Amino acid sequence: MIICPVCDHVQPEGTECDVCGRVFPAPVVEAAPVAPLAELELTPHTGGRVPVEVAVLPELDATRLRAGPDLPAQSVPDLELTRAGATGAVPVLPIEDLDTGRAEDDGVRTAAPTGAVVCRYCRNVQAQGLLCDHCGMRLPRARLAATAVAGAKGSGVDEDGWSACSTCHTPVRHGKICSECGTRSRVEA
After folding, report:
1. pLDDT single digits (tens) 165-177
2. Which contacts of 155-158 are long-range, i.e. CB under 8 A and separated by 24 or more positions?
3. 87 vs 30, 83, 84, 91, 92, CA distance in Å?
């Protein structure tokens, strides 16, 4: 963490203070002196990829086997064959009693829940809002239609009763104190 020497503001990183704007001095990095070791043998490689002269050693046996298409094909009688022989043309038929897991669409749709709902965590009964007023968990409620959302946005409050703080624009509930700057929120008409 960096502490500003002028205003004592603490910040995790940066080259200048976020509050007063003072430029922090850059850290000076000094190069450590490098001395070669006396017992180290220097073997510089110059010339890059220079061809190296090599000679065949007479005491080595040439044991390389022939490879490739010049070897005759051999059958191994002890080898277990894991491939089946040709089966010929097999007819592929659909399975008649297979359940695909999809029911026929009857056109009837489940209605969205309306009215008061019960929070599944704290059992609080609440008539409006998407978040429980008691524990803060999301309620099983459908969102409002686009026209209702547009009307709520115009008033400065969304469907959950949240608005932006007038000072720091942090989301805050209507009439509550902002957790960031301490300003009490109000709805502009």
Report:
1. 877 778 888 778 8
2. 155/187, 155/189, 156/187, 156/188, 157/187
3. 78, 11, 8, 11, 13
The Cα–Cα gap between 155 and 149 comes to 10
Residue that the structure tokens 């298409």 belong to: 69
* Amino acid at the residue 107: G
Three-class DSSP labels, the chain: CEECCCCCCEECCCCECCCCCCECCCCCCCCCCCCCCCCCCCCCCCCCCCCCCCCCCCCCCCCCCCCCCCCCCCCCCCCCCCCCCCCCCCCCCCCCCCCCCCCCCCCCCCCCCCCCEECCCCCCEECCCCECCCCCCECCCCCCCHHHHHHHHHHCCCCCCEEECCCCCCEEECCCECCCCCCECCCCC
- Mind listing the pLDDT tens digit for each residue in 51-73? 778 888 888 777 666 556 666 77
**What letters, b where the CB count within 10 A reaches 16 and e where it falls short, cover 163-182?**
bebbeeeeebbeeeebeeee
Q: Is the full-model pTM beyond 0.85? A: no
